[in-house]
Amino acid sequence: MQVATGGQVGSDPQGRVIVRALDNLNFTLREGDRLALLGHNGAGKSTLLRLLSGVYEPTSGKTKMEGHTGSLIDISLGIDPELTGRENIYLRGALLGMSRAQISERVDEIIDFSELGDFVDMPLRTYSTGMHLRLAFAVSTIVRPEILLLDEWLSVGDEGFKHKAETRMNELVQSTRILVIATHSRDLALKTCNRAILLEHGKVILDTSPDEACKVYFGE
Questions:
Q1: pTM check: above 0.90
Q2: What domains does the chain contain, in order, with CATH numbers?
Q3: Mean pLDDT, residues 149-171 taken together
Q4: Distance CA 36, CA 193 (A)
């Protein structure tokens, strides 16, 4: 078996290539935990987030999640460029677990936050990249999950919208019971989190305070 940046690479008896992205992880998260996942690209951070969100099933062992989980790993997931902004609000909202009635109650709030105006009834393919991201952000952050999974801190739009986005993100994080965020930012890990796991080749190297983990990962 060889160790690669993206985990351990080997083969099964049939000669098929197997990549072991995560290996023998064992940890528990409790209410109030704000966990930073640290590690180089390919260490297993995103794979772990997808495992926790239910996108992936473990090939051995098990995960047990208690509480509604919200994943903001890809805020544009499911958005259709041929549909209007309004139609995409309902589509993306449904993927986030919201009913049509729940989305209808919040749709005006989402549109107002996105600052799209009349463009909300235009096909998404006519949007600029910034408009697309504002819409995706506005609908994706309307939910308030008990367990929030993030792949880096979300920040979108121009300077004016970034301030709104930062405020919304802080509100979202404060309202959640448990946060798990994969990040390459030392400041974010120290400012936002009370615990950190350092991953290397899919294994937990450290499970400690953000300060200690950052010293090892980023250096003194």
A1: no
A2: 25-218 (3.40.50.300)
A3: 89
A4: 6
